[in-house]
């Protein structure tokens, strides 16, 4: 019995490629052209209903001052490091068990048995150090370039809060392997926080989830590290980028603005 071969469904009119410009391709339309036109049609359909292209053009296509160099990419590098931490953290959370009896065993399983587990954990572990270094370098560049001055004071304040949130995320993540080193180092860190004026003792009790280290301490650190701090960092990064796009960036301090020749001639 012969099999009936069903015809291929036709391409919808909205996804059909537009007519080629004269002199390009000799009128031939290949699969890549159809795929490109389909992608353009989908993007146009979304943009017609959301108007996202205007916001993207406002964010990406803007003037930059003379003398801009690679030091200005430290902020973008820090943001990329945060995205890397978020992605690798999600994969680690699929295997991690935030309980005092299974936390260390789950980390051992990820490192030694899970597929690419050692690589993902290494990316997350060393990526946290890279992120802290990049944030400090970015803030140092901002300070020595004088980019914290008017009208960018609010952006500087947001950057300081982002630095604090980054250090908090590193501190809370250090306990999660729950080995001897992370356990006792976290006790020392929480006790240091407890010596702070006024809110120090209350902060220590909040981090420990009680007066002493207990079974709920690890869950408290995991919740802060996995949900609370990353959400705050993502929101503050959004506000930070908005102010950067709105106010622009400053030129290096050694770049002097040239006076307008017409104004010089009028003064003479």
Supply the number of helical segments: 10
What is the alpha-carbon Rg in Å?
27 Å
Order of helices and strands: HHHHHHHHHH
Subunit arrangement of the protein:
single chain
CATH architecture of the domain at 69-247, by name, is Up-down Bundle
In CATH, the topology of the domain at 69-247 is named Cytochrome Bc1 Complex, Chain C
Structural class: mainly alpha
User: How many strands?
Assistant: 0
Question: What can you tell me about this protein's structure?
Answer:
The protein starts with 30 loop residues before the first helix and ends with a helix. Helix 5 (117-144) packs antiparallel against helix 6 (153-174). The protein is flat and about 75 Å long. The protein is built from ten helices and no strands. It is 65% helix and 0% strand. The chain has a domain at 69-247: Cytochrome Bc1 Complex, Chain C, CATH 1.20.810.10. The longest helix is centred in the C-terminal third of the chain and has 33 residues, at 215-247. It has 268 residues and is mostly helical. The chain has helices at residues 31-50, 52-60, 74-93, 103-112, 117-144, 153-174, 180-194, 200-208, 215-247, 261-267.
Question: Which descriptors would you attach to this protein?
Answer:
flat; mainly alpha; Cytochrome Bc1 Complex, Chain C
Give the topology.
Blueprint: H1 31-50, H2 52-60, H3 74-93, H4 103-112, H5 117-144, H6 153-174, H7 180-194, H8 200-208, H9 215-247, H10 261-267
Helix pairs in contact: 3-5, 4-5, 5-6, 6-9, 7-8
């Amino acid at each position: 019995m012969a099999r009936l071969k069903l015809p291929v469904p036709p391409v919808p009119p909205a996804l059909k490629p537009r007519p080629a410009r004269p002199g390009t391709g000799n009128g031939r339309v290949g699969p890549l052209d159809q795929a490109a036109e389909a992608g353009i049609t989908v993007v146009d359909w979304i943009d017609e209903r959301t108007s996202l292209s205007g916001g993207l053009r406002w964010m990406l296509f803007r003037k930059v001052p003379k003398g801009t160099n690679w030091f200005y990419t430290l902020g973008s590098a820090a943001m990329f490091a945060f995205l890397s931490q978020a992605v690798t953290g999600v994969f680690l959370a699929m295997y991690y068990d935030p309980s005092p009896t299974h936390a260390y065993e789950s980390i051992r399983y990820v490192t030694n048995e899970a597929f690419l587990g050692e690589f993902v954990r290494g990316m997350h572990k060393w990526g946290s150090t890279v992120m802290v270094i990049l944030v400090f370098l970015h803030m140092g560049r901002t300070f020595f370039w004088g980019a914290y001055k008017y009208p960018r004071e609010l952006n500087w304040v947001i950057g300081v809060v982002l630095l604090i949130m980054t250090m908090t995320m590193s501190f809370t993540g250090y306990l999660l392997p729950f080995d001897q080193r992370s356990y006792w180092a976290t006790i020392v860190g929480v006790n240091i926080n407890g010596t702070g004026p006024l809110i120090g003792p209350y902060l220590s009790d909040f981090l420990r989830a009680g007066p002493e280290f207990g079974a709920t301490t690890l869950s408290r650190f995991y919740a802060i590290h996995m949900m609370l701090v990353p959400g705050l960092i993502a929101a503050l990064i959004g506000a930070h980028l908005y102010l950067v796009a709105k106010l622009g960036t400053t030129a290096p301090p050694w770049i002097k603005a040239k006076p307008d020749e017409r104004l010089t001639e009028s003064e003479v």
